């Protein structure tokens, strides 16, 4: 009986394999980059019997969900002659290159998309004020460069609605 049990054990047995460590919230948090606050400035170009170019300033926050995907709010103020616009969006950013050895890459290309609210305020010659709200979205991409342990800078281009092309630079700080 013993030889049969030994033969069966040889044929049924499989090689032992090491188990990977289970992922816990602490190890995932170590792999995600720190949140980033950014200040942006640039131009929006609106098609209107030619191209109307207006300057803007804004700010955004990015909170990483994974090493390459971040989400966060953005606000942009656009100033024109006798009118202004305020754009509030929630954005999702995808970094094409993930961190290396726990640090952001020296240069990281990215894609960004967002949606939210576009509020316009017009002042007519009789000092009448008209405001208008509509949905907004932007989509585009750019590149950011690490300027030190906590500072990033970059450029980006986006298309959006209210129909526009956006070109800007930004500087950010990692928290």
Summary tags:
single chain; Porin; 8 strands; mainly beta; 10% helix; 175 residues; 2 helices; eight-stranded antiparallel β-barrel
Judged by helices, strands and strand pairing, the structural class is: mainly beta
- What is the CATH T-level topology? Porin
Mean pLDDT: 87
Binned, the helix content reads 10-25%
User: For the largest beta sheet, what order do the strands appear in spatially?
Assistant: 1-2-3-4-5-6-7-8
Strand content: over 45%
What is the first-to-last residue Cα distance? 69 Å
Q: What would CATH call the class?
A: Mainly Beta
Number of DSSP strands? 8
Question: How many individual helices?
Answer: 2
Computed CA radius of gyration, to the nearest angstrom? 25 Å
The assigned CATH architecture is: Beta Barrel
Q: What overall form do the CA principal axes indicate? A: elongated
Largest sheet: 8 strands, antiparallel, barrel
**SSE arrangement, N to C:** HHEEEEEEEE
Poorly predicted runs are none
Number of domains: 1
Describe the structure.
With 175 residues, the chain is mostly beta strands. The protein has one domain: Porin (Beta Barrel). It is 10% helix and 62% strand. It has an eight-stranded antiparallel β-barrel with strand order 1-2-3-4-5-6-7-8. A hairpin with a 2-residue loop joins strand 7 and strand 8.
